[in-house]
Design goal:
Blueprint (H helix, E strand, L loop, with lengths): L3 H4 L1 H8 L4 H17 L4 H6 L2 H14 L5 H17 L25 H9 L3 H13 L3 H5 L3 H14 L4 E7 L4 E7 L1 H14 L3 H7 L16 H14 L11 H13 L4 H8 L11 H20 L12 H27 L1
Antiparallel strand pairs: 1-2
Length: 344
């Protein structure tokens, strides 16, 4: 690996413009991968014109066909981000880039898996795991939540006596609006972690190079890779039989799958996790928050609660009415049977 890649003036300046540390780390990894492949110098690369740069990136795609297409696209996207900084981005024709493929190599979590992992977790890991399950957000957004944000939300839950707390947010990467949710399990363990970690994390981070750059205001002293390592450790400690690699993004997929099985429509799911809704349907956002706040508690009880003993019973008005009608009918039948018995 050529160490000078990240030290080159132009690349260093480009990386300095990254707003988020996680984005910078991602770009660093991918740009190094590209320049490990490229045989010329960085100065040779910078001297190429638009046509030559396009040819070079197509060469990279062709010569790296053996690796996963998603990895190839990720590297090309990062190089193109650098070229955009240089004001000479490359455009591709339809079909020139490999198709994105679904993740078939990662372990798909079940409720039982997450429950067993939760049981062997420490307070911090319980808080993070329950929060990931509650939100269904990408891990970078989960880790960027601050103590002040969470403390405010927990105070609101206590003041209002609410078992579920909702708030509007924006996905930084895309600017897409979404609705955050704290369920009872997350509320409980976030509260315990904030109390346990008060004043301790800043001292710990100063001693750990991997977390030294993380804001002290964050709830968790972890990077995205650190979260993956945490999940792998919990899976091993829980004795899970895994069918692929353990990765945090599969928890987001688990949340979306649970909401789908709960009968949520596409817009409701997208609004919760922060996926884009077509502009022509954006007016629907005005009712989505109400719909989600009404439906989430039951979806949590039936599909998203990884600790069943903490199930929150939620019965909608129609179900309650039917249950009352059945109960009244059974009582009437019992009364008739008693009358008939007394006649005979």
């Amino acid at each position: 690996m050529r160490i000078e890649v990240l030290q080159h003036q132009e690349i260093a300046r480009w990386l300095e413009e990254c707003r988020r540390p996680s984005t910078r780390r991602t770009y660093e990894s991918r740009i190094k991968r590209f320049f490990n492949w490229y045989t010329g110098s960085i100065e040779d690369f910078l001297a190429l014109n638009g046509k030559e740069l396009r040819h070079l990136l197509l060469q990279y795609i062709s010569q790296n066909s053996a690796q996963k297409s998603n990895t190839t696209n990720a590297v090309v996207n990062s190089v193109n981000a650098f070229l955009l900084y240089l004001e000479k981005p490359v455009s591709f024709r339809r079909g020139e880039r490999p198709r994105m493929t679904p993740d078939l190599d990662s372990h798909n979590f079940s409720n039982g898996d997450l429950s067993r992992m939760f049981d062997v977790a420490c307070t911090r890991d319980k808080a993070l795991l329950s929060l990931m399950v509650s939100l269904g957000w990408e891990i970078s957004a989960v880790l960027e939540l601050t103590r002040e944000q969470i403390e405010t939300l927990l105070a609101r839950a206590r003041a209002e006596g609410q078992k579920f707390i909702y708030w509007r947010g924006i996905r930084k990467k895309t600017g897409v609006p979404r609705l955050g949710v704290l369920n009872p399990l997350a509320i409980e363990w976030l509260g315990k972690w904030l109390k346990e970690s008060s004043g301790k994390q800043s001292r710990k981070r100063k001693m750990d190079k991997k977390t030294a750059d993380l804001p002290v205001s964050n709830v968790f002293d972890l990077t995205a890779e650190g979260s993956n390592k945490m999940l792998r450790r919990l899976a091993e400690d829980a004795g899970l039989t895994v069918t692929g690699r353990i990765h945090v993004h599969r928890i987001r997929a688990w949340v979306m799958s649970g909401l789908s099985r709960a009968g949520w429509n596409e817009f409701q799911i997208k609004f919760l996790v922060g996926k884009a809704i077509p502009v022509q349907d954006s007016t629907y956002l005005t009712t989505l928050e109400l719909e989600i706040s009404e439906r989430y508690p039951k979806a949590y009880a039936d599909y998203l609660n990884i600790k069943p003993e903490k199930i929150v019973r939620v019965i909608d008005e129609e179900t309650r009415r039917k249950a009352n009608a059945v109960e009244a009918l059974l009582k009437r039948v019992e009364e008739l049977e008693q009358r008939l018995g007394s006649v005979t």
